[in-house]
Design goal:
heterodimer, A: 172 residues, alpha+beta, 5-stranded mixed sheet, 3 helices, 10 strands, 40% strand, B: 146 residues, 6-stranded mixed sheet, 4-stranded mixed sheet, globular
Chain lengths: 172, 146
């Protein structure tokens, strides 16, 4: 029999639960989470940081401009703003078909802004920063120069692409 | 455009294979019908490196333009429209990503017009980058080139 000064077992358990909850909250606060957009391009899954993509546009007329390299199909008019379009398949080593029926991701990062052709959006997820692993050192292929890291998604690895690296590559 | 105060630009508009262009009318010294027999002509699709191997000119016109060095070229364009005056407010710069590439072809800006994009072409700049070569004799008739 418990004395009246002893805390009840339920109180002890409740306190423990609250302590655990507080600890969890602290952990949650400390663990930075990032929004990641998973998309397909050329049959493979890739991802961008959500903060680097302003919006997605349905495919529209792309005006060809003489003198552009193959990876720049041309210009689009986005509500009166003239924007460039990048065919990222060129840098990912993905096959290019004659026509394109996907989406245009409007990427904005610092001074860089451009549309990027993608096939489709797969998902938008919040993941802890720690879930993004450095790219495998054995990773090869044309995409290597653009890779920021890798993350698990849907039982497979998704390659996180760096818009900043893409911008640097194009301005070279 | 004279000086920096002008608020309008007179553009000579034309198109080739569905690509629309505008040239400052002051750069065009002369226009003439194309009879297809001249051998000193430059074809605009060749000067601009169109990707297609064959380009059909439906209503070709020869325009004469000069370089900074005073050299004159006769350039064949297609589907020439009237000269149109447009406000500088309607013109847009090229997106930075593709500006360096387009500028090498003399393309310096955009005029969004009638739901399409007209590429503003500085013919003087474009022609000034050409290395003068002896004229080649062309064998194909004027309306079809490439």
């Amino acid at each position: 029999m418990q004395s009246s000064e002893q805390p009840l077992k339920s109180e002890l358990i409740l306190n423990e639960l609250k302590l655990r909850q507080r600890t969890k909250e602290v952990v949650d606060v400390e663990e930075e989470r990032v929004k990641v957009i998973i998309f397909t391009c050329g049959g493979n899954r890739y991802a961008f940081y959500g903060g680097d993509v302003r919006e997605f546009l349905p495919i529209c007329d792309i005006s060809w401009v003489p003198g552009l390299p193959e990876y720049l199909p041309g210009l689009i008019n986005v509500r009166g703003d003239i924007e460039s379009v990048i065919d990222i398949r060129h840098f990912l080593g993905e096959e290019k078909g004659d026509s394109f029926t996907g989406l245009i991701a409007m990427a904005v990062l610092d001074d860089f802004r451009s549309g990027i052709l993608i096939d489709s959006i797969e998902d938008v997820v919040d993941v802890p920063q720690s879930a993004i692993k450095p790219p495998l050192s054995t990773l090869d292929g044309e995409a290597r120069d653009l890779v920021l890291g890798e993350l698990d998604y849907g039982g497979g690895l998704v390659t996180l692409l760096d818009i900043g690296k893409l911008a640097s590559k194009i301005s070279l | 455009m004279k000086g920096g105060a002008a608020q309008h630009l007179d553009l000579l508009l034309f198109s080739v294979e569905g690509v629309y262009f505008g040239i400052d009318a002051e750069q065009v010294l002369q226009t003439a019908a194309c009879n297809g027999e001249d051998d000193d002509l430059l074809w605009i699709h060749e000067v601009l490196d169109f990707r297609t191997t064959s380009v059909v000119y439906l209503t070709p016109t020869i325009i004469t333009a000069g370089t900074r060095g005073g050299r004159r070229y006769r350039v064949v364009i297609d589907a020439m429209e009237d000269i149109t005056q447009c406000s500088l407010n309607d013109l847009r710069p090229l997106p930075p990503v593709l500006e360096p590439f387009a500028m090498r072809k003399g393309i310096w800006g955009i005029l969004p017009r009638n739901g399409r994009m007209t590429l503003l072409l500085d013919l003087m700049s474009l022609l000034s980058t050409r290395v003068p070569q002896p004229p080649e004799r062309r064998t194909e008739p004027c309306p079809e080139a490439g």
